[in-house]
Design a protein that fits this description.
3 helices; 66% helix
Amino acid sequence: MPYSLALRLRDARVPDVLIAQCLGIEPEALGPLLRVARAKLLAAHGPDQQ
């Protein structure tokens, strides 16, 4: 999954429907995907960066 793209698009205030379309997923799947993306980003930065 292109987690970083999803986060970048969200940060750019792209509408959710368009983000889902760009990623090739259903709009209903975007929320869970963004939660996973944020968790992976936080984990990559380690406990000192949270």
